[in-house]
Amino acid sequence: xxxxxxxxxxxxxxxxxxxxxxxxxxxxxxxxxxxxxxxxxxxxxxxxxxxxxxxxxxxxxxxxxxxxxxxxxxxxxxxxxxxxxxxxxxxxxxxxxxxxxxxxxxxxxxxxxxxxxxxxxxxxxxxxxxxxxxxxxxxxxxxxxxxxxxxxxxxxxxxxxxxxxxxxxxxxxxxxxxxxxxxxxxxxxxxxxxxxxxxxxxxxxxxxxxxxxxxxxxxxxxxxxxxxxxxxxxxxxxxxxxxxxxxxxxxxxxxxxxxxxxxxxxxxxxxxxxxxxxxxxxxxxxxxxxxxxxxxxxxxxxxxxxxxxxxxxxxxxxxxxxxxxxxxxxxxxxxxxxxxxxxxxxxxxxxxxxxxxxxxxxxxxxxxxxxxxxxxxxxxxxxxxxxxxxxxxxxxxxxxxxxxxxxxxxxxxxxxxxxxxxxxxxxxxxxxxxxxxxxxxxxxxxxxxxxxxxxxxxxxxxxxxxxxxxxxxxxxxxxxxxxxxxxxxxxxxxxxxxxxxxxxxxxxxxxxxxxxxxxxxxxxxxxxxxxxxxxxxxxxxxxxxxxxxxxxxxxxxxxxxxxxxxxxxxxxxxxxxxxxxxxxxxxxxxxxxxxxxxxxxxxxxxxxxxxxxxxxxxxxxxxxxxxxxxxxxxxxxxxxxxxxxxxxxxxxxxxxxxxxxxxxxxxxxxxxxxxxxx
Length: 678
Known about the structure:
It comes from Grallaria varia (variegated antpitta). This protein is mainly alpha-helical.
C-alpha cells in the first residue's frame, strides 16, 4: 500500500521458515500485479523481499523469479537480510553485477536501514515505518470485491441475456427466451446490497497515524476498486431495472392469461352445465309440496352458481385493477374479457332470478288455490248438513255465517285469478330467452294446469253458489215460518189476555139503562177486537201450513197452537155471550124500572096492570140469579166474572132498584097516601 520516492507502488514479499512454493508465489504475484492500473504500473514497483526468516537460496530464487514475473515493472528490489548472517555468502552472488541481466537493481539491506531508500511513512511497522496496514482486513475486502465483481459480472450477463431476449420481435420468441432464462443464478437484490456495502466501505475507509496524525488516503487498489464497483453497480441497476420491467410484463402477461383462463372456465360452466341445469327445470309443480320441492332443487342450483359468481366477482376486481394500471396494449383485451364475463354472468343471474320468481309465484298460486279449496269444502260441508235451527234468530245467524263464507270464497277466487294471471304473464315472458331452447310444449302444460285449476275452482264456486241460493230461500222460508208461529202464539196470548180481562174487569152492569147501553156498546167493540185477533191467528196458522208444505216439514208448534186458539176463542165466545146476555137483561131491567119510577101519580090509569111490576121483579130476580151462576165452557170448566165482592156489589145495586120498584107498587095500591115522602 505504500509508495517509493518515485510514487511507484511498494510490493512486499514476506518469506517464512517453511518451504515456499514458487508456483503459488508466482500466481500470487501475477494476481497482485493485476490489481493496479496501467498508469500505476508505468511508474514501476519497488519490491521488498523480507528474507529475515528465510534462507539465502530461497531469497535468491525469489529475486530471480521476479525477472520472469515482472521484469519490466520492477525498478528496485530491496532484500531485507538478517543481521550478520549472509555476509559471507553475498560474494558468491552479486546482484548488482546481474543488473543488466535481471533488468532491475537488487539491494541487500538491513531492516533498520531500509528507510534510506523508502520513506518511513510508506513502510509498515515490520520495517520500522509508520504505515498502518491490516493484511486480513485488506484480504477480506479484496475477497468481497472479487466475489462482487464475479457475481455482478455473471449477473449482468444473465440479465442482459434475459433483457435482450425480451426485446426480440415476436411474442412467442420473447416468451420462449424468458422461459429459458427467467430466473438469474443469484439474487440481484443481494448482489446490489453487497456492492453498496462494499462501495460504502471503500469510500469511508481512512487510515490514521499511531500518534493521531494526519489521516492517509486509501490505497491505490482501493481507489481503483471504487470506480469499478460504481460502474458495476450502475450497470446492475440499469439491467435490473430492465429485468424488473421484464418480470412485470411477464407477471402481467401471466396474470392476464390466468384471468383469461378463469374467465373461460366461468363462461364455459355457466353456458354449459349451468344453463343445462336450468333447461331441465321448467315445471312449476301441481301443488304446494311439488312447488316447494322445485324451490329446494332451485336453491341447490343457485348454490352451485354462487360459487362461480364468487369467482366472477374476484375476476372482475382483478380486471378492474389491471384496467386502472392503464397499459394501452391490454386495455382492449381486458375490456373484452370483462364485458364477456359480465354479459354471461348477468344473463345467468337473470335466468336464476326469473326462475326463483316463477317458482315463488307458483307457490303463492297453489297456496291460494289450497286455501280456496278448503273454504269451498267447508262451505259445501255446511250446505250438506240439514238445517235444524231452534228459532228464527239461530236461522238468521246461520244465514249470516253462510253469506260471510260465500263472500270469503268470492275474495279467494278473485285472489286466485290475480295470482294465476300474474303467473301466466311470467310464463309468457319465459319465451323471450327460454334457456336457449323451445319451451312452448312445457309452457303449454304449465298454462293448462293453471287454467284448469282456476276453471275447477270457478265450477266448484258456482255449484256452491247455487246451493247457497237454495239454502238461502229455504232458510228465509223457515224464518217466515218461525215468525208466523211466533205471531200465532202471540195472537193466542192476546186472546187469552182479552178473555182474562173480560172475566176480571168487565163486571159492572151499569147504574141505569143509559150506562148499561154504553157498556153494551163497549163490549161489542171489545168483541170486535177479539174477533180480529182470532182471525189474525187463523191466518198465521194457515200460512204456517203452506210454508211447512213448501219446506216439506211439520211445524213443531202449529199443531197445538190451532187447538189452543180455538179453545180460547170458544171460551171467549161463551163468556162474551154471557156478558151480552147479562147486559141486555140489565138494560131491560133498568129501562122498565126507570119507566115505572118516573111515571107521575096523577096518572094512575097507566098502572092498572099489575103484571108490569111482576115482570120487573121477575127480570130482576133472573138477573140476580145469573150473577151467581158461573160461565160453563165446552170442556166443562167453570169461570166466574170478577170476585165475589164485585158480584155482591152489582147484585146489591139491582136489589136496591128492585126495592124502589116494590115501594112504588105499594104506593100505587094505597090511594089514601098523599105523597111518596109521607
